[in-house]
Amino acid sequence: MSIILEQLTKRYDGHPVVNNVSLEVGDGEFFVLLGSSGSGKTTVLSLIAGLTAADQGRVILHGRDVTMLPTQQRRVGFVFQNYALFQYMNVAENVEFGLKIRKVPAAERRRRRDELLEMVGLAGLGGRMPRQLSGGQQQRVALARALAYQPDVLLLDEPLGALDAKIRVELRRNLKAIQRKLGVTTIFVTHDQEEAFDLADRIGVMNFGRLLEVGTPDELYQKPQTEFVASFLGSGNLLLGRLSGEAVELGSVQFPLDREAHPIQEEGRVQVLFRPEDVALAPSAEGLDCPVLGQATVEEVSFGGSYERLRLRLPPIPGVRPISPPVAFGSSSILVEATRYPDQASRFPLQPGSKTWVGVHRIQTLKHPGLSFLLVSDASRRSQAALSLGGEIARLAHARMTLLGCGMKEEALQVHLQEVRKQLGSGLASLDVQTSRDSPIQAVPRAAEQQPYDLVIMGFHHQQDIELAERLLQTGEHHLLLVPTPQNAPQRALVCVASGEPGKDDVLFAGRLIRHLGADATLLSVLPASNRDSDLYQRAERFLEGGVQSLSILGVPSKTLIRSGATAEEILREATEGNYDLVVLGAPLNTSGGKISLSGVIEQVLRALDDRAILVVRSHFMQARIHPIMDREREARSVNFGR
Amino acid sequence: MDAPELIQRVDREKTAPTGLKQVPWGRWVLRGVALAYLSALLIIPLAVIFQDGLRQGLNEFWRQVINPVAWSALTLTLWTSAVMTVINTVMGTLAAYVLVRYEFPGKSLLNAVIDVPLAIPTLVTGVMLVVLFGPQQALGAWLKNELGISIIFAPPGIILALLFITFPFVVRAVQPVLIDLDRTQEDAATTLGAAGWTIFRRITLPPLLLPLTSGALLSFARAIGEFGAIVIVAGNIPFYSQTAAVYVLGEVESENRLGASAVSIVMVAISFSLMMLINWLQRRSQKEKQ
What we know:
The complex is a heterodimer. Chain A is of the alpha/beta class.
């Protein structure tokens, strides 16, 4: 392997710009990092070159750990977006610079320089000054300069970004040919898909600092694993359907599931992708030789060179939610993109407004369903805090976000939602809006019944909202993130767990979320002060070690802590002393009379901690057992307070 | 094709209801006022001093200039200014570099303090230096007794005063260019294996040279004419610490107007040619930017 990146992380002002990126690039490989601007791809290059210091992780080039080495000793060739040619040197001096620094004799320098200028097609232009060259020529000089001293790896930061289309295509071809000829391992950063598909042996797709998927262009296009990649690469139709038994269901339509291509998946929600070229159109349902989605209206027809591009509107299908292309605010119909070859188009001509039956030849299910958040907002100050933190976390976690505006009159609600949409802004994987005139206490359970969420995020007042939190956990499967005050995305999480099966669940969900935030975790278990039983201590220790293991598999750095004393008090003390900005209460929820009750440790902590976010993780074992430690704590408390 | 377009354009100009067109005097009055002001304030006094210094012929003028006291004052002025300029160029560049490239507490305050010498009366500058380095003061006495260096009433005092007064010139000339400089060129040099001093010398310094030179010349020109601080710091010892400006004052007081004018003419000539040079350099650096 020429380039190995291990869990690289870089933060600016606490925000992870590069988040836990691991990557291996083989010898002589042309690797393309693809992502929109701000996705952290340039920072990855900078970290490899050592122009930026990593906060965590390692960079290994040709088996040499260079993480601690200065840029000068890393032997990387770097081509900058603006070329960064030395303005006060001519082309020849620019190209020779790296050789001169290495004290290569003059004759050898001249030979290398002429060889490279020849290779990039600038022979004889050595005497020109950079500002006398065109953009394309400057780019070639930059490439020649980077390659002149025979670096171990070549890093290119959007080198073709500033050029016009025709020169770009030509230079791309040259670049690929030179890279093949020299066999230098290359990482090329771009936001241009066409460029990526054209150049890459393999592509890595980045978004918000995370490297989402890596694969050959063909693999990524045909079999994307994540929602972002599916909708980012090429155009695609992405719907949320159901997985049941051996079939994928889109409403009443069933597609057989290829178990071999898709190893064991849980039943339930699944994201279904089909490409525009997999859509079949016919004047009647019988005319289609594939599963039929329904009859659609043609919205747009455009000419795309060798094919015709259509946008169709299908009536709503029960149980199916469109993800991409995004549907307009307030609409429930489904948009479908389709392409046809000219012969198909001439056999069955379509204009905007005409009707057509829509079938799908081939679907693909995404492996990771992705997280799905429900953000509760009622325009209060509290919900402002939840909005900013929730938006931030959703962006980092690539979660689908549903915004539930509730507890307001229709008009005020609309105004508020407009504002919130603006505030949440771009960068969300998807943003859905639901409204309700009811208070959160009624609206949230109803929303959760219609569609399960992984996490409900809401503003929280430590005195008034305990009962609300309790009620929100009654229905659904979601965990609860309570935000008392505005804060940044958490950097240090305190995960309070009780040993035993429920604790494992807690650790895993917390880990899943913390991984996205790029935060560190401390696993805390509290043993009763009266306990002199070393068995219990060892069990807790073993359990926490297991937790650290699971977290490290997820890529979350963590450590353990065991305290003894009253559970809530110790949690509060550690939370304050350790400056944690997220407290995860992994507790089995107590049930009394079939209802969930937060009373006990959780309530004590919630009442006392009013300055940082608290994640209440619901354990699936909730009804099965009540953990002895927490239980004992409760008993002790009821004795103390005479309850 | 061309002809009708031309006619149209002429038409438009004719009908354009511009205020200036209707009152063509406005522009002339404006120019007249500016030119009259300039000549009354600058050109006439300059002409008068030339006329006065040369009124007894070139020979007499030259005799006044090479009169030993005057000549020594002129050379003292030039060499102290030159030493100051060298120090100021190096330290001013360093200060500008640190101010632009590094973050440290009190940076904005320091940035503001750099301009203070422009606002303080130069007499006060002289007094400050006397208070600090005067032979009766602790520091001045120590320097004199232990190291045998006298600062006040000696050339080092002149250099110190000039350094203080002209400090902003180089810093302020270099700073904006340094801020605008494309840092990726330095990054590129780093990836090619170059380190600190090489990068500064080969990459950072070349674009700074022009503004640096013009800043240095500006401080030199300013130093030649400095009077207020020097008259206090240097005393008035002929052949030792009497600068040209102070000499001129002495000649005026002893009613040797010819001597005063002659040395003045030399100073004006030096300053004027320096200003021309600076002007040319600044135009060149503007052109280079484009």
